[in-house]
Amino acid sequence: MLTRRAVNRATLARQLLLDRADLSVTDAVSRLAGLQAQTPHSWYVGLWTRLAGLDPTAVGQLLERRALVRLPVMRSTIHLLTAADALALRPLTQPVIERVTLGQFGRRLSGVEPGELVAAARVAVEERPRLASELGRLLAERFPGHDADALAQGARAWLPMVQVPPRGVWGRGGRALQTPLESWLGRPQSAPPVGYLVLRYLTAFGPATIRDAQAWSGLTRLAEVFEELGPRLRVDGDLYDLPDAPRPDPDTPAPVRFLYDYDNLLLSHADRSRVFGDPGAVDYAAHGYVGDSNIQPASVLVDGFVAATWTVARQRRASTLTVRGFRRLTAGERDALEKEGAALLEFLHPDDEHDVRVVRS
Hints:
By secondary structure, this protein is of the alpha+beta class. It contains 16 helices and twelve strands.
């Protein structure tokens, strides 16, 4: 049986959080099986904390060149994916997106035939990218008597769409305009077996349980998939893994790392104790963590586990980073937090004056 610390270090290694990796952005995003990216820009911190010498302007150019895209996939939430992964993973998560959408809007979509809705939506968003609100109004004209918001959400579920730049481009603003995935990339979706999704998950987040994989993807009934993959997997108790995946020594040092508010490290396991430690040691709810919600504070790892939150306040070209620790921090830990915090401010606001404050919550 693997100890919690051993599982922690293995997960950090897969997530590029033990050492900043010398990888291209597209290779890193592929290895990570994407980054959750509802917000236009906070996910850039997730790349910065994992990659050496990240140039955010170059990342934005990858969005503009369509090498990267932002679209709903796992858990029906917007993720940053490579073009190839978007075409492969989006169809595998279709059942999740449909389930979530119909759970929220099913009654208001009663009587709407999905094929007709998709055909009407496709005409509208291929004419030009549109906001969900604008698309909903156009669809309400085609389907009178139905709620515009529900129609737009139904179209989003049944017609895979991406948010187009400049939305998500570093240093720029942009409305959440959407257009069909296949039209944007000029290629059709592929449909690999569900086992492909599980293997990608274990590469990025293993070792993990079946419940962990279901929490990450939103899919259910994955036990049969794991059983089919059995000969290709390593099993330690209820944890599954790839035989050749990295397993660092549990005593491997883990540096201070700043995570963004939707960081996948915190959202991709049913049992989050691999990064939160002993569930009874800290009242995480008091610090803004809400159960298994997709929304979490911007967090800080100290010795591999969540030990603080962070915020940045700006005023008149001065940026102040405040780190709020959950426990007494050693002098060495405070020094590491201040050094890494100063680097984060240099990345976020290089032209500002910088101040890093480490306090106890």
